[in-house]
Protein backbone atom coordinates (compact mmCIF):
# COMPACT_ATOMS: atom_id res chain seq x y z
CA UNK A 1 0.00 0.00 0.00
CA UNK A 2 2.85 2.37 0.83
CA UNK A 3 4.66 1.41 -2.39
CA UNK A 4 1.60 2.44 -4.43
CA UNK A 5 1.32 5.86 -2.73
CA UNK A 6 4.99 6.66 -2.15
CA UNK A 7 7.48 4.36 -3.96
CA UNK A 8 10.54 5.86 -2.23
CA UNK A 9 9.21 5.44 1.33
CA UNK A 10 7.81 2.01 0.44
CA UNK A 11 11.12 0.83 -1.02
CA UNK A 12 12.99 2.14 2.05
CA UNK A 13 10.70 0.23 4.45
CA UNK A 14 10.95 -2.90 2.27
CA UNK A 15 14.77 -2.77 2.33
CA UNK A 16 14.83 -2.43 6.15
CA UNK A 17 12.36 -5.31 6.52
CA UNK A 18 14.26 -7.65 4.19
CA UNK A 19 17.63 -6.69 5.71
CA UNK A 20 16.36 -7.49 9.22
CA UNK A 21 15.12 -10.87 7.93
CA UNK A 22 18.42 -11.62 6.15
CA UNK A 23 20.54 -11.10 9.28
CA UNK A 24 18.23 -12.84 11.78
CA UNK A 25 16.82 -16.00 10.14
CA UNK A 26 18.05 -19.04 8.27
CA UNK A 27 18.99 -18.26 4.64
CA UNK A 28 16.68 -20.89 3.11
CA UNK A 29 13.81 -19.55 5.14
CA UNK A 30 14.78 -16.00 4.11
CA UNK A 31 14.38 -16.88 0.42
CA UNK A 32 10.90 -18.24 1.22
CA UNK A 33 10.03 -14.95 2.98
CA UNK A 34 11.25 -13.01 -0.09
CA UNK A 35 8.97 -15.10 -2.33
CA UNK A 36 5.95 -14.36 -0.14
CA UNK A 37 6.92 -10.69 -0.01
CA UNK A 38 7.13 -10.40 -3.82
CA UNK A 39 3.83 -12.26 -4.30
CA UNK A 40 2.18 -9.95 -1.76
CA UNK A 41 3.44 -6.76 -3.45
CA UNK A 42 2.42 -7.92 -6.95
CA UNK A 43 -0.97 -9.13 -5.70
CA UNK A 44 -1.77 -5.89 -3.85
CA UNK A 45 -0.56 -3.71 -6.72
CA UNK A 46 -2.52 -5.65 -9.36
CA UNK A 47 -5.70 -5.38 -7.28
CA UNK A 48 -5.67 -1.60 -6.80
CA UNK A 49 -3.87 -0.52 -9.98
CA UNK A 50 -6.88 -0.64 -12.33
CA UNK A 51 -8.54 1.77 -14.75
CA UNK A 52 -12.02 0.94 -16.03
CA UNK A 53 -12.98 2.21 -19.51
CA UNK A 54 -15.36 5.18 -19.54
CA UNK A 55 -18.55 5.26 -21.66
CA UNK A 56 -18.33 1.49 -22.17
CA UNK A 57 -20.76 -1.14 -20.94
CA UNK A 58 -19.56 -3.00 -17.84
CA UNK A 59 -21.25 -5.92 -16.13
CA UNK A 60 -21.15 -5.55 -12.33
CA UNK A 61 -22.91 -7.17 -9.38
CA UNK A 62 -24.36 -4.98 -6.61
CA UNK A 63 -22.61 -6.12 -3.42
CA UNK A 64 -23.79 -3.59 -0.85
CA UNK A 65 -26.73 -1.18 -0.95
CA UNK A 66 -28.07 1.28 1.62
CA UNK A 67 -29.84 4.64 1.62
CA UNK A 68 -26.57 6.58 1.27
CA UNK A 69 -24.20 4.05 -0.23
CA UNK A 70 -23.97 1.62 -3.15
CA UNK A 71 -21.02 -0.59 -4.11
CA UNK A 72 -20.55 -3.27 -6.74
CA UNK A 73 -18.03 -5.91 -7.80
CA UNK A 74 -16.35 -5.93 -11.19
CA UNK A 75 -14.00 -8.89 -11.81
CA UNK A 76 -13.96 -9.40 -8.00
CA UNK A 77 -12.88 -5.76 -7.47
CA UNK A 78 -15.07 -3.40 -5.46
CA UNK A 79 -16.17 -0.03 -6.87
CA UNK A 80 -18.38 2.73 -5.48
CA UNK A 81 -21.42 3.59 -7.60
CA UNK A 82 -22.76 7.14 -7.82
CA UNK A 83 -25.58 8.65 -9.83
CA UNK A 84 -29.03 7.22 -10.52
CA UNK A 85 -28.62 3.91 -8.65
CA UNK A 86 -31.50 4.13 -6.16
CA UNK A 87 -33.59 1.37 -7.76
CA UNK A 88 -30.78 -1.18 -7.87
CA UNK A 89 -31.04 -4.09 -5.43
CA UNK A 90 -28.34 -6.07 -3.64
CA UNK A 91 -27.17 -9.25 -5.39
CA UNK A 92 -28.37 -8.33 -8.91
CA UNK A 93 -26.08 -8.19 -11.95
CA UNK A 94 -26.31 -4.92 -13.90
CA UNK A 95 -24.91 -3.52 -17.16
CA UNK A 96 -23.70 0.02 -16.38
CA UNK A 97 -22.36 2.85 -18.50
CA UNK A 98 -20.60 5.97 -17.22
CA UNK A 99 -17.26 7.39 -16.03
CA UNK A 100 -14.68 5.85 -13.71
CA UNK A 101 -12.42 7.75 -11.30
CA UNK A 102 -9.60 5.96 -9.52
CA UNK A 103 -10.09 6.59 -5.76
CA UNK A 104 -8.72 3.75 -3.67
CA UNK A 105 -10.17 3.10 -0.20
CA UNK A 106 -7.69 0.46 0.92
CA UNK A 107 -9.33 -0.82 4.11
CA UNK A 108 -12.60 -1.49 2.23
CA UNK A 109 -11.01 -2.87 -0.93
CA UNK A 110 -12.59 -0.16 -3.11
CA UNK A 111 -10.54 0.67 -6.22
CA UNK A 112 -12.49 3.74 -7.36
CA UNK A 113 -15.79 5.49 -8.00
CA UNK A 114 -17.98 4.90 -11.04
CA UNK A 115 -20.53 7.61 -11.90
CA UNK A 116 -23.44 5.78 -13.56
CA UNK A 117 -25.15 7.52 -16.50
CA UNK A 118 -27.39 4.60 -17.51
CA UNK A 119 -27.90 0.98 -16.51
CA UNK A 120 -29.70 -2.18 -17.57
CA UNK A 121 -30.67 -4.88 -15.04
CA UNK A 122 -29.67 -8.43 -16.07
CA UNK A 123 -31.77 -11.54 -15.68
CA UNK A 124 -31.66 -13.32 -12.32
CA UNK A 125 -28.83 -15.79 -11.79
CA UNK A 126 -27.98 -18.14 -8.91
CA UNK A 127 -26.47 -15.37 -6.72
CA UNK A 128 -29.38 -12.96 -7.18
CA UNK A 129 -31.82 -15.83 -6.51
CA UNK A 130 -30.00 -16.55 -3.23
CA UNK A 131 -30.32 -12.87 -2.29
CA UNK A 132 -34.05 -12.88 -3.17
CA UNK A 133 -34.50 -16.05 -1.10
CA UNK A 134 -32.77 -14.38 1.88
CA UNK A 135 -35.19 -11.44 1.66
CA UNK A 136 -38.13 -13.80 1.47
CA UNK A 137 -36.81 -15.74 4.46
CA UNK A 138 -36.55 -12.51 6.47
CA UNK A 139 -40.16 -11.70 5.60
CA UNK A 140 -41.32 -15.14 6.77
CA UNK A 141 -39.38 -14.85 10.06
CA UNK A 142 -40.85 -11.35 10.57
CA UNK A 143 -44.40 -12.67 10.25
CA UNK A 144 -43.75 -15.21 13.03
CA UNK A 145 -41.26 -13.44 15.31
CA UNK A 146 -41.72 -9.73 14.69
CA UNK A 147 -39.24 -7.39 12.97
CA UNK A 148 -36.79 -7.02 15.86
CA UNK A 149 -36.36 -10.73 16.57
CA UNK A 150 -36.36 -11.64 12.85
CA UNK A 151 -33.53 -9.13 12.32
CA UNK A 152 -31.57 -10.82 15.09
CA UNK A 153 -32.10 -14.27 13.55
CA UNK A 154 -30.94 -13.03 10.12
CA UNK A 155 -27.82 -11.49 11.67
CA UNK A 156 -26.93 -14.37 13.98
CA UNK A 157 -27.68 -17.23 11.58
CA UNK A 158 -27.01 -15.80 8.12
CA UNK A 159 -24.68 -12.83 8.64
CA UNK A 160 -27.21 -10.28 7.36
CA UNK A 161 -26.98 -7.54 10.01
CA UNK A 162 -28.57 -4.86 7.81
CA UNK A 163 -31.96 -5.36 9.47
CA UNK A 164 -30.64 -4.86 13.02
CA UNK A 165 -31.35 -1.46 14.62
CA UNK A 166 -28.47 0.74 15.77
CA UNK A 167 -29.64 0.61 19.41
CA UNK A 168 -29.38 -3.20 19.34
CA UNK A 169 -25.89 -3.00 17.84
CA UNK A 170 -24.79 -0.65 20.64
CA UNK A 171 -26.04 -3.14 23.26
CA UNK A 172 -24.03 -5.88 21.53
CA UNK A 173 -20.93 -3.68 21.59
CA UNK A 174 -21.39 -2.88 25.28
CA UNK A 175 -21.71 -6.58 26.10
CA UNK A 176 -18.73 -7.48 23.88
CA UNK A 177 -20.70 -10.00 21.79
CA UNK A 178 -20.77 -8.17 18.43
CA UNK A 179 -19.29 -11.29 16.81
CA UNK A 180 -22.59 -13.17 17.23
CA UNK A 181 -24.38 -10.93 14.68
CA UNK A 182 -21.87 -11.73 11.95
CA UNK A 183 -21.44 -15.32 10.82
CA UNK A 184 -18.12 -16.35 12.34
CA UNK A 185 -16.05 -19.48 12.75
CA UNK A 186 -18.23 -20.38 15.73
CA UNK A 187 -21.33 -20.46 13.51
CA UNK A 188 -19.60 -22.53 10.84
CA UNK A 189 -18.36 -25.01 13.45
CA UNK A 190 -21.84 -25.43 14.94
CA UNK A 191 -23.47 -25.92 11.53
CA UNK A 192 -20.80 -28.40 10.40
CA UNK A 193 -20.91 -30.40 13.65
CA UNK A 194 -24.70 -30.82 13.46
CA UNK A 195 -24.53 -31.75 9.75
CA UNK A 196 -21.70 -34.24 10.29
CA UNK A 197 -23.66 -35.96 13.08
CA UNK A 198 -26.76 -36.29 10.87
CA UNK A 199 -25.43 -36.93 7.33
CA UNK A 200 -21.69 -37.73 7.60
CA UNK A 201 -18.57 -35.67 6.91
CA UNK A 202 -18.59 -35.74 3.07
CA UNK A 203 -22.08 -34.30 2.54
CA UNK A 204 -21.57 -32.08 5.61
CA UNK A 205 -18.53 -30.48 3.92
CA UNK A 206 -20.56 -29.88 0.75
CA UNK A 207 -23.47 -28.32 2.66
CA UNK A 208 -21.03 -26.24 4.78
CA UNK A 209 -19.53 -24.83 1.59
CA UNK A 210 -23.06 -23.90 0.44
CA UNK A 211 -23.72 -22.28 3.84
CA UNK A 212 -20.51 -20.24 3.47
CA UNK A 213 -21.73 -18.93 0.07
CA UNK A 214 -25.28 -18.31 1.37
CA UNK A 215 -24.01 -16.17 4.26
CA UNK A 216 -21.90 -13.93 2.02
CA UNK A 217 -18.48 -15.58 2.18
CA UNK A 218 -17.06 -13.50 5.05
CA UNK A 219 -13.41 -13.91 6.00
CA UNK A 220 -14.19 -15.69 9.29
CA UNK A 221 -16.44 -18.30 7.62
CA UNK A 222 -13.96 -18.91 4.79
CA UNK A 223 -11.21 -19.37 7.38
CA UNK A 224 -13.35 -21.78 9.43
CA UNK A 225 -14.36 -23.80 6.36
CA UNK A 226 -10.75 -24.15 5.15
CA UNK A 227 -9.62 -25.31 8.61
CA UNK A 228 -12.50 -27.81 8.90
CA UNK A 229 -11.82 -29.10 5.38
CA UNK A 230 -8.09 -29.62 6.12
CA UNK A 231 -8.91 -31.30 9.46
CA UNK A 232 -11.23 -33.83 7.82
CA UNK A 233 -9.09 -34.46 4.73
CA UNK A 234 -5.78 -34.82 6.65
CA UNK A 235 -6.64 -38.19 8.16
CA UNK A 236 -7.91 -39.47 4.80
CA UNK A 237 -4.54 -38.79 3.13
CA UNK A 238 -2.60 -40.11 6.19
CA UNK A 239 -1.26 -36.72 7.30
CA UNK A 240 -1.12 -35.27 10.80
CA UNK A 241 -3.34 -32.20 11.26
CA UNK A 242 -1.52 -29.09 12.51
CA UNK A 243 -3.82 -26.23 13.53
CA UNK A 244 -1.13 -23.51 13.20
CA UNK A 245 -0.31 -24.59 9.63
CA UNK A 246 -4.02 -24.82 8.86
CA UNK A 247 -4.82 -21.27 10.02
CA UNK A 248 -1.74 -19.96 8.16
CA UNK A 249 -2.83 -21.61 4.91
CA UNK A 250 -6.34 -20.17 5.35
CA UNK A 251 -4.85 -16.66 5.72
CA UNK A 252 -2.71 -17.10 2.56
CA UNK A 253 -5.65 -18.34 0.47
CA UNK A 254 -7.93 -15.47 1.58
CA UNK A 255 -5.27 -12.77 1.03
CA UNK A 256 -4.40 -14.06 -2.44
CA UNK A 257 -7.96 -13.38 -3.59
CA UNK A 258 -8.75 -10.39 -1.35
CA UNK A 259 -5.46 -8.67 -0.42
CA UNK A 260 -7.23 -5.68 1.17
CA UNK A 261 -8.41 -7.96 4.01
CA UNK A 262 -5.02 -7.39 5.66
CA UNK A 263 -6.54 -4.02 6.75
CA UNK A 264 -9.96 -5.46 7.64
CA UNK A 265 -10.72 -5.46 11.37
CA UNK A 266 -12.99 -8.52 11.13
CA UNK A 267 -10.27 -10.51 9.35
CA UNK A 268 -7.63 -9.60 11.93
CA UNK A 269 -9.88 -10.32 14.93
CA UNK A 270 -10.95 -13.67 13.49
CA UNK A 271 -7.38 -14.89 13.01
CA UNK A 272 -6.09 -13.42 16.29
CA UNK A 273 -8.89 -15.20 18.21
CA UNK A 274 -8.00 -18.54 16.61
CA UNK A 275 -4.29 -17.94 17.19
CA UNK A 276 -4.97 -17.27 20.89
CA UNK A 277 -6.97 -20.51 21.17
CA UNK A 278 -4.22 -22.53 19.41
CA UNK A 279 -1.43 -21.15 21.62
CA UNK A 280 -3.08 -20.76 25.04
CA UNK A 281 -6.25 -22.88 25.26
CA UNK A 282 -4.56 -26.09 26.54
CA UNK A 283 -2.44 -24.15 29.05
CA UNK A 284 -5.47 -22.35 30.51
CA UNK A 285 -7.45 -25.60 30.67
CA UNK A 286 -4.65 -27.16 32.72
CA UNK A 287 -4.55 -24.10 35.03
CA UNK A 288 -8.34 -24.32 35.60
CA UNK A 289 -8.41 -28.11 36.09
CA UNK A 290 -10.38 -27.81 39.37
CA UNK A 291 -13.43 -26.39 37.57
CA UNK A 292 -16.15 -28.70 36.14
CA UNK A 293 -15.28 -29.74 32.57
CA UNK A 294 -18.08 -27.68 30.93
CA UNK A 295 -17.10 -24.48 32.79
CA UNK A 296 -13.41 -25.20 32.23
CA UNK A 297 -13.92 -25.48 28.47
CA UNK A 298 -16.05 -22.30 28.29
CA UNK A 299 -13.63 -20.22 30.41
CA UNK A 300 -10.50 -21.43 28.60
CA UNK A 301 -11.98 -20.80 25.13
CA UNK A 302 -13.27 -17.35 26.07
CA UNK A 303 -10.05 -16.21 27.77
CA UNK A 304 -7.61 -17.69 25.22
CA UNK A 305 -9.53 -16.22 22.26
CA UNK A 306 -9.18 -12.71 23.73
CA UNK A 307 -5.48 -12.77 24.64
CA UNK A 308 -4.34 -11.59 21.19
CA UNK A 309 -7.58 -10.03 19.94
CA UNK A 310 -8.24 -7.64 22.85
CA UNK A 311 -5.06 -5.50 22.49
CA UNK A 312 -5.69 -5.23 18.74
CA UNK A 313 -9.38 -4.35 19.30
CA UNK A 314 -8.40 -1.59 21.74
CA UNK A 315 -6.06 -0.05 19.14
CA UNK A 316 -8.37 -0.54 16.12
CA UNK A 317 -11.77 0.17 17.71
CA UNK A 318 -10.55 2.38 20.60
CA UNK A 319 -13.03 0.69 22.93
CA UNK A 320 -12.89 -1.97 25.62
CA UNK A 321 -15.78 -3.91 27.14
CA UNK A 322 -15.13 -4.83 30.78
CA UNK A 323 -17.87 -7.46 30.92
CA UNK A 324 -17.18 -9.26 27.64
CA UNK A 325 -15.96 -12.51 29.24
CA UNK A 326 -19.04 -12.78 31.49
CA UNK A 327 -21.40 -11.89 28.61
CA UNK A 328 -19.85 -14.48 26.32
CA UNK A 329 -20.02 -17.19 28.98
CA UNK A 330 -23.69 -16.53 29.78
CA UNK A 331 -25.09 -15.71 26.31
CA UNK A 332 -23.13 -17.86 23.83
CA UNK A 333 -24.87 -21.16 24.78
CA UNK A 334 -28.25 -19.54 24.04
CA UNK A 335 -27.03 -18.06 20.73
CA UNK A 336 -25.73 -21.52 19.80
CA UNK A 337 -29.34 -22.77 20.10
CA UNK A 338 -30.48 -19.81 17.93
CA UNK A 339 -27.93 -20.75 15.22
CA UNK A 340 -29.18 -24.37 15.19
CA UNK A 341 -32.89 -23.45 15.18
CA UNK A 342 -32.41 -20.65 12.62
CA UNK A 343 -30.70 -22.99 10.18
CA UNK A 344 -33.36 -25.63 10.79
CA UNK A 345 -35.87 -22.93 9.86
CA UNK A 346 -33.92 -22.32 6.63
CA UNK A 347 -34.10 -26.03 5.71
CA UNK A 348 -37.76 -26.42 6.74
CA UNK A 349 -39.09 -23.08 5.43
CA UNK A 350 -41.18 -24.89 2.80
CA UNK A 351 -43.05 -26.90 5.45
CA UNK A 352 -45.52 -24.51 7.07
CA UNK A 353 -46.30 -26.35 10.34
CA UNK A 354 -42.71 -27.43 11.00
CA UNK A 355 -41.46 -23.90 10.26
CA UNK A 356 -44.00 -22.46 12.75
CA UNK A 357 -42.90 -24.98 15.41
CA UNK A 358 -39.24 -24.00 14.94
CA UNK A 359 -40.23 -20.33 15.20
CA UNK A 360 -41.99 -21.03 18.48
CA UNK A 361 -38.72 -22.44 19.84
CA UNK A 362 -36.78 -19.47 18.44
CA UNK A 363 -39.20 -16.99 20.02
CA UNK A 364 -38.81 -18.66 23.45
CA UNK A 365 -34.99 -18.67 23.30
CA UNK A 366 -34.86 -15.06 22.03
CA UNK A 367 -37.13 -13.91 24.88
CA UNK A 368 -34.73 -15.52 27.39
CA UNK A 369 -31.75 -13.85 25.63
CA UNK A 370 -33.54 -10.48 25.66
CA UNK A 371 -34.14 -10.73 29.42
CA UNK A 372 -30.53 -11.75 30.18
CA UNK A 373 -29.15 -8.95 27.96
CA UNK A 374 -31.29 -6.33 29.73
CA UNK A 375 -29.97 -7.54 33.12
CA UNK A 376 -26.35 -7.55 31.89
CA UNK A 377 -26.65 -4.09 30.26
CA UNK A 378 -27.96 -2.71 33.56
CA UNK A 379 -25.33 -4.45 35.74
CA UNK A 380 -22.16 -4.26 33.64
CA UNK A 381 -20.03 -1.09 33.61
CA UNK A 382 -20.08 1.24 30.62
CA UNK A 383 -17.74 0.54 27.74
CA UNK A 384 -14.36 2.28 28.00
CA UNK A 385 -13.44 4.64 25.16
CA UNK A 386 -9.81 5.37 24.27
CA UNK A 387 -8.13 8.05 22.23
CA UNK A 388 -5.70 6.92 19.53
CA UNK A 389 -2.71 7.65 21.81
CA UNK A 390 -4.29 5.86 24.79
CA UNK A 391 -5.02 2.78 22.67
CA UNK A 392 -1.37 2.69 21.55
CA UNK A 393 -0.32 3.06 25.22
CA UNK A 394 -2.43 0.00 26.17
CA UNK A 395 -0.82 -1.97 23.36
CA UNK A 396 2.65 -0.72 24.40
CA UNK A 397 2.10 -1.83 28.02
CA UNK A 398 1.03 -5.26 26.77
CA UNK A 399 4.27 -5.58 24.76
CA UNK A 400 6.25 -4.47 27.85
CA UNK A 401 4.60 -7.22 29.88
CA UNK A 402 5.55 -9.82 27.26
CA UNK A 403 9.12 -8.49 27.13
CA UNK A 404 9.59 -8.60 30.93
CA UNK A 405 8.05 -12.09 31.06
CA UNK A 406 10.63 -13.25 28.49
CA UNK A 407 13.44 -11.90 30.69
CA UNK A 408 14.19 -8.55 28.98
CA UNK A 409 14.16 -6.45 32.16
CA UNK A 410 15.01 -3.22 30.30
CA UNK A 411 11.33 -3.10 29.31
CA UNK A 412 10.46 -2.04 32.87
CA UNK A 413 11.60 1.53 32.07
CA UNK A 414 9.23 1.90 29.12
CA UNK A 415 6.07 2.54 31.26
CA UNK A 416 7.80 5.66 32.69
CA UNK A 417 8.07 7.08 29.15
CA UNK A 418 4.45 6.12 28.50
CA UNK A 419 3.31 8.22 31.50
CA UNK A 420 4.90 11.31 29.89
CA UNK A 421 3.08 10.51 26.64
CA UNK A 422 -0.27 10.32 28.49
CA UNK A 423 0.35 13.66 30.22
CA UNK A 424 1.34 15.33 26.93
CA UNK A 425 -1.51 13.88 24.85
CA UNK A 426 -4.08 16.25 26.37
CA UNK A 427 -2.21 19.15 24.73
CA UNK A 428 -3.03 19.36 21.01
CA UNK A 429 -0.08 20.79 19.10
CA UNK A 430 -2.08 20.71 15.85
CA UNK A 431 -5.79 21.62 15.54
CA UNK A 432 -8.17 18.64 15.44
CA UNK A 433 -11.74 18.67 14.10
CA UNK A 434 -13.98 15.62 14.67
CA UNK A 435 -17.50 14.67 13.59
CA UNK A 436 -19.70 12.98 16.21
CA UNK A 437 -23.34 11.87 16.09
CA UNK A 438 -25.47 11.81 19.25
CA UNK A 439 -29.11 10.70 18.96
CA UNK A 440 -29.25 11.95 15.34
CA UNK A 441 -27.76 15.32 16.39
CA UNK A 442 -24.62 16.42 14.55
CA UNK A 443 -21.70 17.46 16.73
CA UNK A 444 -18.42 19.05 15.65
CA UNK A 445 -15.65 18.75 18.25
CA UNK A 446 -12.76 21.22 17.87
CA UNK A 447 -9.54 20.80 19.89
CA UNK A 448 -6.48 23.01 19.86
CA UNK A 449 -3.76 23.36 22.50
CA UNK A 450 -5.58 22.92 25.86
CA UNK A 451 -9.04 23.99 24.67
CA UNK A 452 -11.85 21.73 23.44
CA UNK A 453 -15.29 22.96 22.39
CA UNK A 454 -18.28 21.15 20.88
CA UNK A 455 -20.90 22.66 18.59
CA UNK A 456 -24.18 20.79 18.06
CA UNK A 457 -27.48 21.22 16.23
CA UNK A 458 -29.45 19.78 19.18
CA UNK A 459 -29.35 19.41 22.96
CA UNK A 460 -26.65 17.14 24.39
CA UNK A 461 -24.87 16.61 27.68
CA UNK A 462 -21.16 16.15 28.29
CA UNK A 463 -21.80 12.48 29.16
CA UNK A 464 -23.28 11.90 25.68
CA UNK A 465 -19.88 12.53 24.13
CA UNK A 466 -18.10 9.23 24.75
CA UNK A 467 -14.64 10.55 23.91
CA UNK A 468 -11.64 10.74 26.25
CA UNK A 469 -11.61 14.56 26.14
CA UNK A 470 -12.60 17.17 28.71
CA UNK A 471 -15.03 19.51 26.92
CA UNK A 472 -14.57 23.14 27.98
CA UNK A 473 -17.81 24.39 26.43
CA UNK A 474 -20.77 23.07 24.41
CA UNK A 475 -22.71 25.32 22.00
CA UNK A 476 -26.20 23.80 21.67
CA UNK A 477 -29.03 24.35 19.13
CA UNK A 478 -26.59 25.86 16.67
CA UNK A 479 -28.05 27.45 13.51
CA UNK A 480 -26.82 29.67 10.70
CA UNK A 481 -23.19 30.34 9.72
CA UNK A 482 -20.33 31.22 12.07
CA UNK A 483 -16.58 30.91 12.36
CA UNK A 484 -14.08 29.94 15.05
CA UNK A 485 -10.64 31.48 14.74
CA UNK A 486 -7.97 29.09 16.01
CA UNK A 487 -4.94 31.21 15.15
CA UNK A 488 -3.70 33.65 12.54
CA UNK A 489 -3.44 30.77 10.09
CA UNK A 490 -6.64 28.77 10.61
CA UNK A 491 -10.36 29.50 10.89
CA UNK A 492 -13.05 26.83 11.21
CA UNK A 493 -16.25 27.82 9.46
CA UNK A 494 -19.43 26.07 10.63
CA UNK A 495 -22.56 25.99 8.46
CA UNK A 496 -25.88 24.53 9.65
CA UNK A 497 -27.99 23.10 6.82
CA UNK A 498 -31.24 21.94 8.43
CA UNK A 499 -30.11 19.25 10.93
CA UNK A 500 -26.72 18.75 9.28
CA UNK A 501 -23.60 20.54 10.50
CA UNK A 502 -20.85 21.21 7.97
CA UNK A 503 -17.29 22.18 8.86
CA UNK A 504 -14.76 23.90 6.60
CA UNK A 505 -11.10 24.63 7.30
CA UNK A 506 -10.20 28.10 6.05
CA UNK A 507 -6.51 28.91 5.68
CA UNK A 508 -6.42 32.65 6.31
CA UNK A 509 -4.17 35.42 5.04
CA UNK A 510 -1.81 37.03 7.51
CA UNK A 511 -3.62 39.32 9.97
CA UNK A 512 -2.80 41.20 13.16
CA UNK A 513 -6.19 40.41 14.72
CA UNK A 514 -6.08 38.16 17.78
CA UNK A 515 -9.02 35.76 18.16
CA UNK A 516 -10.12 33.53 21.02
CA UNK A 517 -10.95 29.96 20.08
CA UNK A 518 -13.90 29.60 22.44
CA UNK A 519 -15.90 32.43 20.81
CA UNK A 520 -18.21 31.80 17.88
CA UNK A 521 -17.98 34.66 15.41
CA UNK A 522 -20.85 35.50 13.09
CA UNK A 523 -20.43 35.45 9.31
CA UNK A 524 -20.06 39.26 9.17
CA UNK A 525 -17.08 39.27 11.57
CA UNK A 526 -15.07 36.43 10.13
CA UNK A 527 -11.51 37.01 8.94
CA UNK A 528 -11.14 37.59 5.22
CA UNK A 529 -9.83 36.85 2.72
CA UNK A 530 -9.30 33.08 2.81
CA UNK A 531 -6.50 31.79 0.59
CA UNK A 532 -7.81 28.20 0.70
CA UNK A 533 -10.95 26.39 1.96
CA UNK A 534 -11.20 22.63 2.62
CA UNK A 535 -14.57 20.96 3.26
CA UNK A 536 -14.49 18.24 5.92
CA UNK A 537 -16.77 15.35 4.90
CA UNK A 538 -19.10 13.75 7.44
CA UNK A 539 -19.28 10.04 6.53
CA UNK A 540 -22.47 8.01 7.00
CA UNK A 541 -20.43 5.25 8.65
CA UNK A 542 -22.15 3.64 11.64
CA UNK A 543 -20.35 4.07 14.97
CA UNK A 544 -21.74 3.93 18.53
CA UNK A 545 -23.62 7.11 19.50
CA UNK A 546 -21.28 9.76 20.95
CA UNK A 547 -18.07 8.38 19.44
CA UNK A 548 -15.98 9.93 16.68
CA UNK A 549 -17.01 9.20 13.08
CA UNK A 550 -14.21 11.10 11.34
CA UNK A 551 -11.23 12.99 12.70
CA UNK A 552 -9.27 15.63 10.79
CA UNK A 553 -5.89 17.08 11.86
CA UNK A 554 -4.52 20.31 10.38
CA UNK A 555 -0.76 20.26 9.89
CA UNK A 556 0.82 23.16 8.00
CA UNK A 557 -1.19 23.71 4.83
CA UNK A 558 -2.58 20.16 4.77
CA UNK A 559 -5.63 18.49 6.30
CA UNK A 560 -5.16 14.84 7.30
CA UNK A 561 -8.19 12.58 7.63
CA UNK A 562 -7.86 9.76 10.17
CA UNK A 563 -10.00 6.67 9.52
CA UNK A 564 -9.39 3.32 11.33
CA UNK A 565 -5.83 4.45 12.09
CA UNK A 566 -5.04 5.21 8.44
CA UNK A 567 -4.18 8.66 7.12
CA UNK A 568 -5.48 10.29 3.97
CA UNK A 569 -4.21 13.72 2.90
CA UNK A 570 -6.95 16.05 1.67
CA UNK A 571 -5.85 18.77 -0.74
Short account of what is shown:
48% of the residues lie in helices and 22% in strands. By secondary structure, it is an alpha+beta fold.
Record the SSE blueprint.
Blueprint: H1 2-5, H2 7-22, H3 27-48, E1 58-65, E2 70-74, E3 77-83, E4 93-101, E5 110-121, H4 126-145, H5 147-158, H6 166-175, H7 185-199, H8 201-214, H9 219-236, H10 243-257, H11 265-287, H12 293-317, E6 319-320, H13 324-347, H14 352-379, E7 384-385, H15 388-405, H16 414-425, E8 428-438, E9 441-449, E10 451-456, E11 473-475, E12 481-485, E13 490-497, E14 500-508, E15 521-522, E16 530-536, E17 548-555, E18 558-563, E19 566-570
Parallel strand pairs: 3-5, 10-11
Antiparallel strand pairs: 1-2, 1-4, 2-3, 4-5, 6-7, 8-9, 8-17, 9-10, 12-13, 12-15, 13-14, 14-16, 17-18, 18-19
Domain ComEC/Rec2-related protein: 157-403
GO cellular component, one term: plasma membrane
Membrane topology: Multi-pass membrane protein
3D structure, described in words:
This protein folds into 5 domains: 2-48; 58-123, OB fold (Dihydrolipoamide Acetyltransferase, E2P) (Beta Barrel); 131-384, no CATH class; 387-422; 427-570, no CATH class. It starts with a helix and ends with a strand. 30% of the residues are buried. The strands form 4 sheets. A 7-stranded mixed sheet has the order 11-10-9-8-17-18-19, with no helix packed on it. A 5-stranded mixed beta barrel has the order 1-2-3-5-4. Strands 15-12-13-14-16 form a 5-stranded antiparallel sheet, with no helix packed on it. It has helices spanning 2-5, 7-22, 27-48, 126-145, 147-158, 166-175, 185-199, 201-214, 219-236, 243-257, 265-287, 293-317, 324-347, 352-379, 388-405, 414-425, and strands spanning 58-65, 70-74, 77-83, 93-101, 110-121, 319-320, 384-385, 428-438, 441-449, 451-456, 473-475, 481-485, 490-497, 500-508, 521-522, 530-536, 548-555, 558-563, 566-570. The protein has 571 residues and is an alpha+beta fold.
Amino acid sequence: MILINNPIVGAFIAVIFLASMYFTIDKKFFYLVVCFFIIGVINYYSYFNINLPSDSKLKVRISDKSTYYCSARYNDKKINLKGNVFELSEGRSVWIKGNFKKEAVYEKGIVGTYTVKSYEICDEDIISKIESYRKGLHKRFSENLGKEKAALVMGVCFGDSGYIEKVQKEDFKKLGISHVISVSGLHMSIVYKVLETVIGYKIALLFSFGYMIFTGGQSSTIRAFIMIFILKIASKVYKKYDSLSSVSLAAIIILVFRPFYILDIGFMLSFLCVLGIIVFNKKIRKALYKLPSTLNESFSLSISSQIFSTPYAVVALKTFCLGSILSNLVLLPFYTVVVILGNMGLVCSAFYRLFNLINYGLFTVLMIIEFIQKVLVALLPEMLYFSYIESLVVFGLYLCYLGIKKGYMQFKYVPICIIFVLVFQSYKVFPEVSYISVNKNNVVLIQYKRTAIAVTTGNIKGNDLKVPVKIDRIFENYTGKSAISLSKRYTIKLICNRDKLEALVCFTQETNKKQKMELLKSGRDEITPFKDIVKLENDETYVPSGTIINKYIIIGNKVLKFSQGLEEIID
